[in-house]
Amino acid sequence: MRRFFTIVLAFTFFTVSAQNPTLSSSEIFQNIKKLNVLGSVLYIAAHPDDENTLMLSYLSKDQMVRTGYLSLTRGDGGQNLIGAEQGYNIGVIRTQELLGARRIDGAQQFFSRAYDFGFSKTRDETLNFWDAKKVQGDVVWMIRKFRPDVIITRFPPDPRAGHGHHQTSAYLAEEGFKLAADPNAYPDQLKFVKPWQTKRLVWNTYTPGFTNQQPTGEKSPFISIEIGGYNPVLGKSYTEIAAESRSQHKSQGFGSSPQRGERIDFFLHKVGQPAQKSLFDDVDISWERVKGSEKVQALLTQTIRNFAVNKPSASIPDLLKINAELNKLDTSNIYVKTKKDEIRELIIQCAGLWFESNPADFSAVAGDVAAVNVSVIKRSDYPVKLVSMNWIGKDKDSLLNLSLNENELNNFGIKTKLPETLKLSQPYWLEKPIEKGVFQIDKQEDIGFPENRPETVTTFTFEIGGQLFSIPRPWIYKFADPAEGEIYRPFEIRPAVTTTIAEPVYIFASAEPKTVTMVVEAQKSNVSGVLKPQIPAGWKSVPESATFTLSNKYQQQYFSFIITPPIINQEVSLKAVATVNGETFDKSIRTIAYRHIPSQTIFPGSEAKLAKIDVKTTAKNIGYIAGAGDDVPTALRQMDCQVTMLNANGLSKDLSVFDAIVVGVRAYNTEDYLTNYQGKLMEYVKNGGTMVVQYTIPGQKVKEIGPFKIELGRERVTEEDAEMRFLQPDSPILNFPNKITKQDFEGWIQERGLYFAQDWDKQNYKALFSANDETESAKEGSLLYAQYGKGHYIYTGLSFFRELPAGVTGAYRLFANMISVGKK
Q1: Distance (Å, whole) CA 251 – CA 79
Q2: pTM score, two decimals?
Q3: Which of these three, 230, 258, 285, is where a domain ends?
């Protein structure tokens, strides 16, 4: 049975740029041509990075159809190559990486409510973990809402797809194809959308390594499409655009070089009407599908023919005529509605309009007064009038009727009281805890959106050619960085005060007390109150509470509490609760900052795990070689170890001072300098040292990572409650200084382990455990132990990088034994 900790976070999600980016003349021309195409395609897969960015680029920028990517999950269960974030935090990063990718390849991004619980081997396991009816409903909802002519899956619905999530994404897509057209399926959705029959569903096939080849052994018909062409208007091939898009997946190490030249993709028919030559066989993607649009078609032909690259504003009169004609049609029609939105943006771009609202600070508290600078400029000679502005907190429009002069910046300083009802900047899908593997979302209309729709906005109303256009823009803070230049940061609504506990887990190996540090931070000026640790009976805090007074916004005050555990072993939660004017605050604060995504501030519950357990360690001085990012060093310190982080400089010094050296996850994949120091590390072991190597994926930079042959594989045990059979019950690792029993493998999260050794020197390495997922054969490569010279070497694929930060006490006891094996 899978288990996970539920942590409700809060953070903001706005775009990285101040407004929709300014387009070049060629990009404007590309988008004008796109007005003449009414087709749509929905691409469906399971995770961030599953999508074929080349196909999305081709569809959006060559075929110019409305293109969407539905990722069932946000990638919460994956590994992280750029930092230590896991779970919801890595889901935050990957959501923004996907949005960055879509800004490049031109597709729209959507998500279902499914939570990525980690690697799954079968479709049955995945559907058993997820609330299958809800996730299926989300797929149906997005088909009905997006109304695609064609659906493309990245995977087949069977074991050929590998990952159980991959299989499930294709299975739910094929089922959704049928259910979306059935008025009896998910009838509650029909309050907002209508049934929709997609023409066909195809599988974007691939061969191992994604080297595309013609499908063989398939009874279903297929078509082939050359998608690697060059777009002279954009000055790039679709392979170049796709590589730039895929390179946004930096947390997964997917930086890509474009493969220029011909690229043929194959599409195998799965459901619906088979295609003969094109994805859009028998699909009318012209304006003929909209009744009464003859004049629109004629005007579009004229606009495309007359476009002037050196003066886009000359196209505004024609675009205004098209917009007027669209207003005469059924504006609830998805094609009419979509094209009206596209035309509005094109008119803004052709007029050279730039407008934004920049708060004086990057955060505020609901109910406070915010100062905002509003900027408007028109960089063309076409007449435009700024009729009015309205912003959050203002009950009516501010009428201006200001004629904008060419290239003249207009600044407006405003102050507004933010409504008390504004929510914290928390994504809608995390407002409630997860149930049955899906995020709980109350409103049907919210499902699918990649991020919150901002509440703090300014709405600008312009008059252009006698027509009014009202355009909302979110508030976004900007500042100048001396090295990077202008930086935009999302505007946040924060609680008045946050409380943060220094560590997520505190391990008590005895009845001795530990000092717990808590930080109170003011998110507004002049905040005072009381901070109190909340712990269950039997635990003691000295002092029981502390008062704080914070005069300035963002001012912090640190407090130390001496926490004494009970005599008996026990695992409990510690909360840091602040009381201000009778109101309690129990959110912590953390900012996730990477250069390739907007800064993301999260507000988890201010909570830590306290564990009084029987854990001993005889190794105290630990050297740690960091790899792809993990929090194992923090866990080692919780066991009263002194941890020294080792890089190339540290490895060049005397290693004999360390009781053990631990290698972080994927270090042999990410750290080039290890090739120069592997020999020295083996000498350290031979001379009596202890070395623990955590999981490494095949293709490591060092050919031999141990003193004897180890061949790494991709075997894993994904069922976190899989039986762990002890193969060497007398091994010191299972007996000293802690007696390891089956109880120590209770409460593990997400998985037992991954990237086990698949072959090794059986004479020198001893496999300590055997484990397997249900219906699979036993795997013995999760932990290998060897004596080498006077020392000890361990390779382990057990997921300590997940278990230790989560406070899994048995993992602490086993890890303590591994680092202590040489210190009897």
Answers
A1: 8
A2: 0.87
A3: 285
